[in-house]
Design brief:
By secondary structure, the protein is α/β, with parallel strands linked by helices. It has a single domain, classed as Aldolase class I (TIM Barrel, Alpha-Beta Barrel), CATH 3.20.20. It contains eleven helices and twelve strands. It has an eight-stranded parallel beta barrel with strand order 1-4-5-6-7-10-11-12, surrounded by seven helices.
Length: about 260
């Protein structure tokens, strides 16, 4: 993969996705995916989404944490509210609890630009590829949530067996998946920086688009992910705690390789 270039309007084609994680209607962040280590950052997800758009976001990453835990969507109304609020300004990517075709269909029908499937893509061979063939590779992404070198599902449940991540990524790419959202679980929500070794191994596979997630804490971290070939990055806690300036990072990306 090569570095992502700016478009003709001077904007970067690299996708910077501010994250809105939903639990019980609130905007939260978890540490290492642990539901017992939650920080609440607000009760107005629509307002948060509008703020991201005001800062220049062209993508928003929304996760239904209740859905991820239950295995079926639980925050569909909140997701639909976010989609309506930013329509025409930003695209919305949605994940969490999407383990069958009807769930995916509902999110796409409500206006989500792309859905992210995880557990079902890991446990059911051909599931993600079937979605790609049905809806198109630009509408479907697969979450590779990585712990100890293995891609795990089941809302990151401790003890979930998972599969070797590089082998799993290669299989998904062969099946037609293009976008892989790669989260280093041990770094997620801890502001310790991205796992560049992990991301580099996956970008070296070629043929797909790797979106970095987990631990990104600064503009420099985002630029580092782009330099090693990632096509996007998801940022969460660093935004909510004021460590990463969204508008400034977007400008840095638009300025070109750094």
């Amino acid at each position: 993969m090569t570095d992502v270039k700016p478009d003709r309007a001077g904007r970067s084609d690299f996708e910077l996705l501010p994250a809105i994680d939903l639990r019980g209607g609130a905007v939260v962040r978890l540490a290492e995916g642990d539901f017992d280590r939650q920080t609440v950052y607000g009760q107005d997800p629509v307002g948060v989404a509008r703020g991201f758009v005001a800062d220049g976001a062209r993508w928003i990453h929304v996760v239904d944490l209740d859905g991820a835990r239950a295995g079926v969507p639980r925050q569909a109304a909140a997701v639909e509210g976010i989609v309506r609020a930013v329509a025409g300004s930003a695209a919305v990517e949605v994940g969490g609890g999407l383990r069958d075709v009807p769930g995916v269909e509902r999110m796409l029908a409500c206006g989500a630009r792309r859905v992210v499937v995880g557990t079902a893509a890991l446990t059911r061979d051909g599931f993600a590829g079937g979605l790609v063939r049905r809806y198109g590779s630009d509408r479907i992404a697969v979450a590779l949530d990585v712990r100890a070198g293995r891609a795990v599902g089941e809302a990151w449940r401790i003890g979930a067996p998972g599969r070797p991540v590089a082998e799993t990524a290669a299989r998904l790419l062969d099946d037609g998946v293009v976008t892989l959202v790669v989260t280093a679980v041990e770094r997620d929500g801890l502001l310790e920086g991205p796992d560049l070794d992990l991301l580099g191994r996956l970008t070296s596979l070629g043929g797909g688009r790797i979106v970095a997630s987990g631990g990104l804490r600064s503009t420099d971290d985002v630029l580092a992910a782009r330099r090693i070939g990632c096509a996007g990055a998801i940022v969460g806690r660093a935004l909510y705690e004021g460590r990463l300036d969204l508008a400034g990072t977007i400008r840095a990306l638009a300025a070109g390789p750094a």
